[in-house]
Amino acid sequence: MEELDGEPTVTLIPGVNSKKKQMCFDWGPGEMLVCETTFNKKENSETVPGCPFIYIIRKDIDVYSQILRKLFNESHGIFVGLQRIEEELTGKSRKAQLVRVSKNYRSVIRACMEEMHQAAVAAKDPASGRQFSSQVSILSAMELIWNLCEILFIEVAPAGPLLLHLLDWVRLHVCEVDSLLADVLGSENPSKHESFWNLPGNTQTLTELELKWQHWHEECERHLQDGTFASSPHLECLCKIMLGDEAALLEQKELLNNWYHFLVTRLLYSHPTVKPIDLHFYAQSSLDLFLGGESSPEPLDNILMAAFEFDIHQVIKECSIALSNWWFVAHLTDLLDHCKLLQSHNLYFGSNMREFLLLEYASGLFAHHSLWQLGVDYFDYCPELGRVSLELHIERIPLSTEQKALKVLRICEQRQMTEQVRSICKILAMKAVRNNRLGSALSWSIRAKDAAFATLVSDRFLRDYCERGCFSDLDLIDNLGPAMMLSDRLTFLGKYREFHRFYGEKRFFDAASLLLSLMTSQIAPRCFWVTLLTDALPLLEQKQVIFTTEQTYELMRCLEDLASGRPVQGEASAQRLQEDLENTKLEILRLALARNLARAIIKEGSLEGS
Amino acid sequence: MIHDAQMDYYGTRLATCSSDRSVKIFDVRNGGQILIADLRGHEGPVWQVAWAHPMYGNILASCSYDRKVIIWKEENGTWEKTHEHTGHDSSVNSVCWAPHDYGLILACGSSDGAISLLTYTGEGQWEVKKINNAHTIGCNAVSWAPAVVPGSLIDQPSGQKPNYIKKFASGGCDNLIKLWKEEEDGQWKEEQKLEAHSDWVRDVAWAPSIGLPTSTIASCSQDGRVFIWTCDDVSSNTWSPKLLHKFNDVVWHVSWSITANILAVSGGDNKEKLHMQQPDRQP
User: Fold this and answer.
1) ipTM of this complex prediction, to 2 decimal places
2) pTM of the predicted model, to two decimals?
3) What pLDDT shows up at residue B123?
4) Most exposed: A398, A455, B35, B265, by fewest CB within 10 Å?
5) Spatial distance between the Cα atoms of A503 and A499, rounded to a whole number of angstroms
6) Residue A555 — left, alpha, or beta (φ > 0 → left; ψ -120 to 50 → alpha)?
7) Which of A10, A24, A385 is opposite residue B4, by nearest beta carbon?
8) Are the beta carbons of B2 and A36 separated by less than 8 Å?
């Protein structure tokens, strides 16, 4: 394990005196539990704790933000879209399409920012207002960084247009400034320059442009030297600025909000055809000059600097540390990966950086009761560990409603996650049994292919029938189909119900054969034989003879088997059967069977038709 | 003094146990905390609780200084004691449920040096298997290996039980970590001894499986060290330890996140440390 290259942040648990007490903890599916304890297992441990609370620590609290949810939802759409068109991204249009995707992401961030801003303005109390405002700044910073990355890494603006893009970038993010000088620094010159550069369809080469600019620059200098502007210090200052004089620029520091504004302005007037590889040199000096040794760079400054140095991994690393959730780095890294910028680099984490970030982000989504569905798609696009991560997370989603359970199951089935399907169905079956919803329990156990559970539920059904004299969930039992074969008990249940149907439809002969086969084929549990024999009574009492002699003999044998209390392994004790088969019942059955036998013999012995 | 707190499978319920001999269950959905049950039955401080897999219903196991292991079950909305195991001669320190694929099986480690395995056989019956003298002086922790079907991972036809090789790890006062395997005859045999600690092993945690053939176990000890043991190939069964960190004080507890990418370590220096563990191929 490599050493960390920075001190990890220490999070203090309120109320726990970390100097005196120890903490025990456990992982929940998406959070950690921490509480004060003592690990020394002695009998007379202190019974009064310093802090009686248990803390639940979550790291993905942003998932719960209403406004950010839109960001997550919409960026999810862009992400999935990008993965899908990957194969189609070829040739010249590739870059343009990737830029478009990047701009889509940025517009989503801006939309979110706008909404957050509205919330800040409309906030009822100052505290939440402040919170919203700080979120706005964070989003703004994210867009700033993303935009720069788009220019430098995705658009890969070559020397020349690079500066124009940077100008746009600065303009977009710098607040309004009003003054003559500001106009000069801001809008006026770029338009002058636009005509100068003559984009698009630029027919001039870079060298030609440089020459032109050099020429103009020299002219300006000459004017300054000649003292053309000597009468007006303002104009002189203006001229100096246009010559890129750093000191002059710095004098207007208040109008330049930050060092990158300074950088771009400086470049505009001194090195308009700056090449990307030289950018970092100017960036560093701009930063140093602007800060002037008075303050040190903020995290945002470091991130931007890393971008100017074209150190993508540093950008991602710094962003990961600075931001509170993985949204930004996950999506940006994925996009950069599509730009084929992340390949040959010795990564700190050992495995694929893109996948690592996506996995972390998706895991965070699973902490949320509905956003987890977005997480599924992210896992789908992580070839190494996505599937197993999904398997581990999806089982932990609380199945609070049937609808949610079905949703989860559908996702698992679509991905052939049979183990998870089985496990979830078992859980639902168990839940249904506990809530006495036998029909539901049965269908879940069938779906889970859980023979043992199906047997259990079937037993319950049969027991219910014995107690109440009727079946619940007839539809289900009647339409079991091949699923009936899952367990012997279930088969019996289905067949027994069929017997009742036959009887109801007056198909007495079919009913009789079925009844007999149920007893002789050992499918019927022994404890149920009494019921079956009792069911036979109405058939025996019919005017017409239904049971043949053969069948009657079988039935008699079964009855005597039962009466003699011969125990069968695994079945209820003989004692109980004896009790069930009270003498009166026994006599009634014996009588009925004997009478039937008599009639059957006569019938079979007679000639046809008589 | 709370000795253990565990979230259930979904993070909706919390079970805690304490030196006041009680086991409490809370409903913690939507940030709330409602006490659902206050279970009494132990006669000494309760050291650990463990939730069984939800497919078996709502079942919780607890172990205590009173040498007992109690299994509690929620039936019709109320929690009751469903089984009590008294087969140990001293404090039971750790309980751990086996992967749900194996059925409902609980491993218990005790200061009498023995490990007992309780298997639910149906109709309220539990079968007990005991491994005596698993660790001299005492056993402090037990942790099950994730279920992996050997050989092919193709879906088994319904009704057929796949041939799982059941394994678990235990840590004891003999400074050893032992790996146990269930033989075909149902008996448990010591498969491996992992030696690296110089003092009592306080906790072992077998990492959840992420689909790779590598197996990983974390162990921590009175000697302040945390080791990560890896076995790259099940058939070779050679485990190599890597020292994660040496702390200045006893390390009491190690625990893996559900996707095994973070290991949480609780040390005597009263800090909770989270280590990012990657399924890397680095040595």
Assistant:
1) 0.81
2) 0.80
3) 82
4) B35
5) 6
6) alpha
7) A24
8) yes
